[in-house]
User: Fold this.
Amino acid sequence: MGTVIVAAVLAAVVGLIIHGMVKDKKAGKSVVCGGDCSKCKGHCSH
Assistant:
């Protein structure tokens, strides 16, 4: 039973992280460098 609870909590955390990344991507923020192209050495697409 403990394994099921830990797996459910882990799946929820991973789901929230992915949801946050998708939300940031839709808002125009870069997942790679945070949108500050001066610091990411040109990896941004803007």
Observations:
- The chain has a mean pLDDT of 79.
- The chain is about 55% helix and 0% strand.
